[in-house]
Amino acid sequence: MTNLLDVEHLKQYFPIRTGFAKTTPLKAVDDISFSIRHGETLGLVGESGCGKTTVGRSVLRLYEPTDGKVYFEGTEITRSNIKSMRRQMQMVFQDPYSSLNPRMTVEDIIGEPLDVHRMYSNSKERREKILNLMELVGLNAEHATRYAHEFSGGQRQRIGIARALAVNPKFIVCDEPVSALDVSIQAQVINMFEELQDKLGVAYLFIAHDLLVVRHISNRIAVMYLGHMVELADSDELMDHPIHPYTESLLSAVPIPDPETARHKQRIVLEGDVPSPLNMPTGCPFRTRCRYATAKCAEEMPDFTDRGNGHFVACHVK
Amino acid sequence: MENNSVPKKRPFSLQLDLSKFEPATEEEKRQQDVMSKSTTFFRDGMRRLLKNPLAVASLIVLLLVIATIVIAPMIVPYGYEEILSVNGRRDKGAKNLTPFEYSTAEKKYIAQGNSRFPHIFGTDEQCRDYFIRVVYGARVSLFVGFFASIIVLIIGMLIGSISGYVGGRVDLIIMRIVDIIYSLPDMLMVILLSVVLKEVLTFKTGSVLASLGTNMISMFIVFGALYWVGMCRLIRGQILSIRENDYVLAAKSIGAGSARIIRKHILPNCLSVIIISTALQIPSAIFTESYLSFIGLGVSAPMPSLGSLANAARQGLQSYPYKLIFPAAAICLIVLSLNLLGDGMRDAFDPKLRR
Amino acid sequence: MEQKQYEHLLSVRDLHTHFSTENGTVSAVNGVNFNLDAGKVLGIVGESGSGKSVTAYSVMRILSENGWIDQGEILYKGDNIVKWSEKEMQSFRGRCVSIIFQDPMTSLNPVFTIGNQLKEAITLHTAKRGKEAYDRAVELISLVGINEPEKRMRQYPYQLSGGMRQRIMIAMALACEPDILIADEPTTALDVTIQAQILELMQSLQKKMGMAIIMVTHDLGVIAEICDEIIVMYGGRICERGTADEIFYNPHHEYTKGLLRSIPTMNSKKQKLVPISGTPINMLNMPAGCAFCPRCDAAMKICLEEIPEELFINENHKASCWINVRDGKGFETLPETAEKEETAK
Fold first, then answer.
1. Which residues of A180-205 are buried (b: 16+ CB within 10 A; e: fewer)?
2. ipTM confidence
């Protein structure tokens, strides 16, 4: 069985003006390959500026990738077939405030994908579909004529999810969908993502920086650092047996909501800051902060290799 | 309950009504959690606007002014270019009357038992009723202000949205043109253009354009040619910032085309800014018109405008100061209330200023 | 200021803070009480709109223009600072209590160098001038773990990363060695690895300087890591307070319980999360009874009508929830004190 989505050597560079009539490419995503199976959730974690959001947007062709190929169910996504592909692939955004047009009612927001793809024959059918979608994400049908600004963050995120689901997609990129929400609301939305997956069999690329949330929802997790993928493994495997030193320190840095564990935890505190992506270190991007770094790390970019059981790591040392 | 035996430690259990400790129903909980009343963006903004006393006062003043300039010509039996006459004979005594004063001929006429409409603002040196002239002047000024702003809006919006949405080289060229126009001394340009256009433009007599007068047409051209740049920059900026919103990206990811994105997502969101800045453009256009009329480049005589009335009043300023005061006060009132209303609208409708 | 006898370093009593909005007056904080002793770390946790930040700002008296302390006392070393003049407050802020904010990007002035801003903070509150102030600034920068302090002094905020800026903010807050440091979501805007650095730094500085910290955050993980005592707030009121262990392992308020159930932990492998239902509280439309009751699964009739009193669960733990009354847990005062009172009579 083919994968739902295959990403091969995806590169996304943005030209940044660094001087008068001089531009330097900002390598937001540099040579990334991964695949997503049907009905699976792949978590994508990393710190801000590591390119995780860019990966999501390049896969959906919201940016024109610099290089690399994306296959959806074996068909390459190109400029010409992207419109029909958008019926299969959707996106949920981080900010529930700026991702909904303040001048549109909930009904029109959720109905927009239906309008664009002409997925109804008359206005009654449109309305029925919209109400079904609202029910699916737990919104009250009587709120259909309200404007987005009248809702709380969690409800707005539900509207955004209903919009993404309107075209019956097989794949949704969730770009930090819960990080702007309150703790007590996060669980509602996470549970809803899981329920929708069970019900509709949709696959997610779940981008987030909260490792605990990602671990909870994902089947597999990929870790990114400065535009590169450094580790990819089954979520329990990655959490319990991280190989890459970056993943290791990321895991130890996560604050655990449990005073007992917190007291006995040995934190591996990383020194320094993430280097600027305009001025990348040679070789392995993590070597400037890595405590195992050797001379080889500065010379050569490590390959992203399978260490058995689908546990991919890019590291010379470990 | 055994703890009743130690009441001092648990005084609650004695006084409490146990029926209150039954689980609450969903219904009861729901009652506590009501969503606030639904409002549309427009209604919300209007509510805000009506809460602003200055804006409401200026709205009332403006409505009164508009009512006056619409109704007054129907009531006042004099024309703006009509030289006063009594019983079909020219009333030579009706020159430079003070407000509510009648000329000798008129007094005689009234003494005969006829009624004569009072000269509310007096008369000018050509024996014309001054009130109706000020009313017509205000008409002309408001008309010019309004249409000039519309012209500015149309040109500015068109060029601004092209510049903002297309971007790249087109944007670069348009913005440089805007920069050049900005760098011209605008009053000088206005005067030069008006002088030149006055010579160049000729219209067939009897056509609509001719009845407006070449001066008025040239004034519109001046506005259209010079003042669109501000609007253009504003709209370009708006489009650039709205384009960055996630909902535009969301529409793109849904598969919506450019036309739909502009129509459904970008324009509705910059509409309030466009309306507000148009409203604020009107007073500045009125000012420019008055200024041009004042230096004799505005509307052509005998059509009055507030500026030309003020100019005419200059000559007899010492003896008849009220002739300057009336048109000047009219300009101030109109411009001030338009400005205050525009400010109030911006506060009420511009979401960026909220919270 | 004469030296007074005082019980606690900071004592907030029945604090009510209100804001006037165009839709009416909002009471963001409704009768908050807490004490803070020197050298302790107090965590205030709650979601947005719970009044946690407003409580912190009230202590500094840096509320926005439409907000005011309606009622209550804030006793700093026994003095009620609510009654102080603005001028007295100015010397209080920075010297006695300092605050660091969530967003390190906007809390530094972009047009001045780091050194400039640090020196200003120092000269404002101490007698140090010129070279002395400069040396102190350099000392502070190295104190917060930034290398090459002399070079940093000449840099502008935009030249530093987010984590570094937050360190500078901490250095500024510590310039006059305040007794209390208020940290309002200090790590929310930072990445996990940087967050760990900052938390580590705050802990080590606290040990070194012995100040008290009020940590305001929504992140239960951060709270668990560094706080001695925790206050859980909802809808402007304190739901529950106690030591970290009591709150995490023995919660007695339905909101705290729900909160703990709704977050994924390291141990819960694939357990389903149990979310708190409903939507966040609408501050304009507060329930008559317990603020949490519209979302509470265990809500009882009394919860809708009456605000629960704070009950003692044990000496380290208090909770305001009617459930405890129903279950016969909790005391109005601690049994020992009640007995003492009795014998005293």
1. bbbbbbbbbbbbbbbebbeeeebbbb
2. 0.84
